[in-house]
């Protein structure tokens, strides 16, 4: 188990990191079938002053590049060098998936559905088990960065469990454009953090196999606000003042394609739309068919399917269901 002793020395993954020092320690628990070791770099920066331990993770799904870029920028800019306490960054948790540009582990399992793992289970389950035993317990606060799956683009958002006032408080500090009530998924990383009593924010932004500079900006600035709130951000770093509060979304619904064909989206993700507003078109490839898609409710578009081709029944827009006036009362965009 990782720990910080009475002399403020961090012991993690079999190594000691002294106050005021940094280290990169490779978390190695499996090999490729070629016997090549696969190492997950764990980047640690410590202040001389005691304080919280913040764990930043990305790439739990190997094809979600935006999160990797957010944590990379935090490291590259030196934001991860704390004024007090310790910051641990793991830009790519699922190295296996990242190498293959795939969401899953090589055993076909979704790492974010097998936590807290098993000592003698599948490869993904064993990895989750070792992560939970050897790294996670040291954390006082976790930030986990994700994107939408496949071609579905998520507006930058924080997901919190309804009624979790502590997470909602931190979400408001992070100040992504949207904060969405979202049930905790069974055997997810977020559920495991919650069961261990570790506050965690799940950030979603953009889509898989894509890097979006605007999404990265929201992620980096949100992380800086959290670190500043914890008194961990070095004084030299500045971030924009909060001009618009996060929009809290309590419920939402998917708008699905009524026909198969080529999808032509007409609005940007994040836009507030009126009920009946024209938002996309579905056509056939031959110029004979054209179907207008209109919003089925008033609300914010928090996810857009950016695939050029859809089948009947495919989810194409995720739209909040709260009235505009209510959202504005909660600090709308």
UniProtKB/TrEMBL annotation:
Cofactor(s) needed: Zn(2+)
Domain Succinylglutamate desuccinylase/Aspartoacylase catalytic: 50-230
This protein's record includes keyword Isomerase: no
The keyword rRNA-binding is assigned to this record: no
A GO molecular function held by the record: hydrolase activity, acting on carbon-nitrogen (but not peptide) bonds, in linear amides
Keyword list, A-Z: Hydrolase, Metal-binding, Zinc
InterPro entries noted in UniProt: AstE_AspA_cat, N-alpha-Ac-DABA-like, N-alpha-Ac-DABA_deacetylase
The name this protein goes by in its record: Succinylglutamate desuccinylase/Aspartoacylase catalytic domain-containing protein
Species name: Christiangramia echinicola
């Amino acid at each position: 188990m990782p720990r910080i002793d009475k002399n403020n020395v961090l012991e993690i993954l079999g190594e000691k990191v002294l106050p005021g020092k940094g280290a990169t320690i490779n978390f190695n628990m499996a090999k490729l079938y070629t016997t090549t070791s696969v190492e997950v770099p764990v980047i640690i920066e410590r202040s001389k002053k005691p304080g919280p331990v913040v764990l930043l993770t990305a790439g739990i799904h190997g094809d979600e590049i935006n999160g990797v870029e957010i944590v990379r920028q935090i490291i590259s800019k030196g934001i991860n060098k704390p004024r007090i306490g310790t910051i641990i960054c793991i830009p790519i948790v699922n190295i296996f998936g990242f190498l293959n540009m795939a969401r899953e582990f090589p055993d076909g399992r979704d790492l974010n559905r097998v936590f807290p793992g098993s000592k003698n289970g599948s490869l993904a389950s064993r990895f989750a088990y070792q992560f939970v035993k050897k790294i996670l317990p040291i954390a006082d606060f976790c930030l986990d960065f994700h994107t939408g799956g496949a071609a579905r683009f998520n507006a930058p958002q924080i997901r919190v469990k309804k009624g979790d006032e502590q997470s909602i408080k931190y979400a408001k500090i992070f100040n992504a454009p949207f904060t969405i009530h979202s049930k905790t998924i069974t055997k997810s990383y977020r559920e495991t953090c919650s069961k261990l009593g570790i506050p965690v924010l799940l950030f979603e932004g953009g889509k898989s196999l894509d890097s979006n500079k605007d999404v990265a900006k929201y992620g980096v600035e949100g992380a800086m606000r959290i670190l500043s709130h914890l008194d961990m951000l070095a004084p030299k770093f500045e971030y924009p003042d909060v001009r618009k509060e996060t929009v809290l979304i309590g419920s939402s619904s998917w708008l699905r394609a009524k026909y198969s064909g080529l999808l032509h989206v007409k609005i940007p993700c994040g836009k507030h739309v009126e009920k009946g507003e024209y938002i996309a078109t579905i056509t056939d490839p031959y110029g004979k068919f054209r179907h207008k898609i209109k919003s089925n409710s008033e609300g914010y578009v928090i996810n857009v399917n950016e695939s050029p081709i859809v089948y009947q029944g495919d989810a194409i827009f995720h739209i909040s269901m709260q009235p505009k006036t209510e959202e504005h009362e909660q600090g709308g965009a």
